[in-house]
Design goal:
Blueprint lengths: L2 E2 L6 E6 L4 H13 L5 E6 L6 H13 L6 H14 L15 E2 L4 H14 L18 E2 L5 E2 L4
Parallel strand pairs: 1-6, 2-3
Antiparallel strand pairs: 4-5
């Protein structure tokens, strides 16, 4: 089993299909793990060049200060240019998550507040409310995770 010790983490990569997927799906976990010296690289695959990109950049800065965008995006662009693909496949439905993260009420409220503040374009969505606090689930094979002492 892989042991994950948050204090020893040096680098995290976060991927989102849409703007707000990272904050909804892992925002509380990122708030818990974020600390000076932790590098977070982020890539969101849609919404670039729209108001949603601005929302995502502001939200990511709030959820994990110091997050980096350009390195991951540049690496993908280099791959696209080097290979000139006619078709790109990505992993679709990953099935049911195997790990769920329970958030303390205080952290869940902070996450909900940041979501409301940073994603004004999504406030009208029926699924976009305080219940987003329960959306933190991950796909892992084996993991021992202790976020707090």
């Amino acid at each position: 089993m892989t042991g994950l010790v948050p204090e020893r983490l040096e680098r995290i990569v976060v991927l989102g299909a849409h703007c707000d997927d990272i904050a909804i799906g892992a925002g509380g976990t990122l708030l818990t793990l974020s600390r000076p010296g932790l590098r977070v690289d982020a890539l969101v695959l849609s919404g670039g060049g729209t108001e949603r990109e601005d929302e995502e950049r502001a939200a990511l800065a709030a959820f994990c200060p110091g997050a980096h965008w350009d390195e991951v995006k540049n690496a993908l662009e280099e791959l696209r240019v080097r290979t000139e693909p006619d078709l790109i496949f990505g992993d679709g439905d990953l099935g049911a998550p195997s790990v769920y993260v329970s958030l303390r009420d205080e952290l869940a409220e902070k996450k909900a507040g940041l979501l409301q503040r940073h994603y004004p374009s999504q406030r009208h969505r029926p699924w976009y409310d305080r219940e987003a606090r329960y959306a933190e689930a991950f796909h892992v094979r084996k993991l021992c995770l202790q976020l707090e002492g």
